[in-house]
Amino acid sequence: MPRRILLLITDLQIGGTPTVVRELAFRLAQEEGVQVHVACLDRWGPVADQLKARGIAVTALAASSRLDAGVVFKLIRLIHREQIDAVFSFLIHANTTAALAGLASRHVRFFQSIQTTQPKPRWHWMLQHIVQHAADAIVVPSPSVAAAARKWAGIAAEKIVVIPNAVEIGEFSIPKRNIPGTRIGFIGRLDPIKRIDDLIAAVALLPEEFTLDIYGEGSQRLPIESMIRRLSLGPRVTLHGAVAGAAEALAGIDLLVLPSDAEGFGLVLIEAMAASVPVIGTHVPGICDVIRHGANGILVRPRNPKALAEAIGRVLSDGSLRENLIAGGIASVRDRYSWSMVYPQYRALLVNHT
User: Fold this and answer.
1) Is the pTM of this model over 0.85?
2) Could you give the angle at the alpha carbon of 258 between the alpha carbons of 242 and 122, nearest 5°?
3) Both 146 and 220 in a single domain?
4) Mean pLDDT of 109-113
5) pLDDT class for 244, splitting at 50, 70, 90?
6) Residue 315: exposed, middle, or buried by beta-carbon count in 10 A (0-12, 13-18, 19+)?
7) pLDDT at 354 over 60
8) So what's the pLDDT on residue 178?
């Protein structure tokens, strides 16, 4: 009998965690004796199209809301119909749904993933504390998430497995850009936790030749547009909306900045490193696990536009620093965050378990 693995996620829209699920599914599907199925709680999304195009079975459970109890019964039917023997769920809503389905699926092993370090909403962590008992192991992408899981959800350290996010270096090979350049980029959800307003304020402190390209969509789009108008930065700041993949956006920028208050990991950081784009991030949980200050990127204090502007100016004006950061970033991805290094850890957990 083949090993039948179900990857369950809240949605399959463009984003960091759906990207991890997609890439993991691609690799599991290549294993001899393994069948992989991907499901999401929400409706069909663009990442579902990408999975289907590669011949991977995808099911959208199409929950009407986060409180739709019917999605649990849909998941139970899917598990039984496909004879699933391992379910790996990502994020709190999927973790909870999988835990409830597990009550009617005693023959199945369950694994959960936590991808955040944000302390709020606290009820997420309280719920995670309850549902973690249904899982054999809790996978997290960084030591910062492991610490948050222990602190906020009371998960035992021995139950936590740290497996970092990963990229395929070859997928981010882009033409080398001219030096110096003044094109700053942000790629991600337009969410309050990302502190994009700090980055815009930093751009306002820089000379006029510095421009900012923002790639992504989210709840903060209107406040961001208002701030751009208020600071008269229209000619220098461009909102591009969502992109299908980070490589397209990275090809057009000279520096990637992630000014968040917190991250679980910051997948875009290693995507930028793989694309030979230097990175600046805030010294906060998640980001500080990936960026080693001065070696593969620059860390600055959070919520400090002045410090951010100074760091941007320094990286984009100092060719030697820039080249050192690029080299350090490529080495980090090659040695720690490439799929060739990371996937064996998933294989050991999901394929080789007994």
Assistant:
1) yes
2) 90
3) no
4) 98
5) confident
6) buried
7) no
8) 54
Q: Kindly state whether residues 195 and 214 are assigned to the same domain.
A: yes
* Residue tagged 């370090």 (tokens): 117
Give the sign of the dihedral formed by CA 333, CA 338, CA 342, CA 344. Answer: negative
Element (H, E) at 299: strand 298-300
Tokens of 128: 């995670």
Tell me the residue range of the domain where 261 lies: 169-336
CA gap 241, 3 in Å, rounded: 39
Q: What is the DSSP string of 60-113?
A: E---SSTT-THHHHHHHHHHHHTT--EEEEESHHHHHHHHHHHTT-TT-EEEEE
Helix ranges (DSSP H) in the chain = 16-28, 46-53, 70-81, 92-102, 122-131, 143-153, 196-205, 221-230, 246-250, 267-274, 287-290, 305-317, 319-332, 339-350
CA atoms of 272 and 188, how far apart (whole Å): 12
Number of domains in the chain: 2
Please indicate, yes or no, whether residues 139 and 207 belong to a single structural domain of this protein: no
CATH code for position 158: 3.40.50.2000
211 and 182 in contact (C-beta within 8 Å)? yes
Q: Which tens digit of pLDDT belongs to each residue from 163-214?
A: 999 999 889 876 655 556 899 999 999 999 999 999 999 999 999 999 999 9
| Residue found under tokens 């299908």 | 244
| Distances 52 to 11, 36, 57 between C-alpha atoms, Å | 15, 12, 6
CA distance 145 to 116: 6
